[in-house]
Amino acid sequence: MLSEKLKLVFQNEGVVTIIAQGKDFPHAVNTWNSYVELKDDYLIIPVAGMNTMEAILNNNNKVLVTVGSPDVEGLHGIGAGFNINGVANIQSDGDEYADVKNKFVWARAMMKIDINDYYQTT
C-alpha cells in the first residue's frame, strides 16, 4: 500500500525520472507526475517514444523511479521526493493500455512498473 505522502506527490506536478541499467551506462527518461496513474502496488505511465528504454527493459527490467514535487511538505521543509524500486515492462494491448490510449492519444504503449519498495528522500 502506498503512503499518503507519496500519493500526494503524484497529485501535484513535478517530474518523474525512470532509470534502467543500459549496457554501458544507466539510461533515464522523464515524464510528468500528472501522466502517472497510481495503483495499489504498481504505476502506469503512457509511452510515446522510449524506444531505447524498451530495448533495455527487454534485457533487464529493474528500474529506479524518482518522483518529487515542490508543492508537498517534505522531511525538512517544502518539497518532497521519493525513490521507487521496481520492475517495468512496456505493453501495447489490454484494457489498461486502452484506458491509457483513451486519455493520451499520442501514447504508442504504456509502461507498467510493479513496485518492490520505496522510500522518501526529501
Q: What topology does this entry show?
A:
Blueprint: H1 4-11, E1 15-21, E2 26-32, E3 37-38, E4 42-47, H2 51-59, E5 62-73, E6 78-91, H3 95-103, E7 109-120
Antiparallel strand pairs: 1-2, 1-5, 3-4, 4-7, 5-6, 6-7
Structure description:
The structure is a single chain. By secondary structure, this protein is α+β, with helices and mostly antiparallel strands. It has a single domain, classed as Roll (Pnp Oxidase, Chain A). Helix content is 21%, strand content 49%. The protein contains three helices and seven strands, in the order H-E-E-E-E-H-E-E-H-E. The chain has helices at 4-11, 51-59, 95-103; strands spanning 15-21, 26-32, 37-38, 42-47, 62-73, 78-91, 109-120. A seven-stranded antiparallel β-sheet has the order 2-1-5-6-7-4-3. It is globular. The relative contact order is 0.24.
Q: Calculate the mean pLDDT score and round it.
A: 97
Order of helices and strands: HEEEEHEEHE
Known CATH architecture: Roll
For this structure, what is the CATH homologous superfamily? Electron Transport, Fmn-binding Protein, Chain A
CATH topology: Pnp Oxidase, Chain A
Q: Judging from the principal axes of the Cα atoms, what is the shape?
A: globular
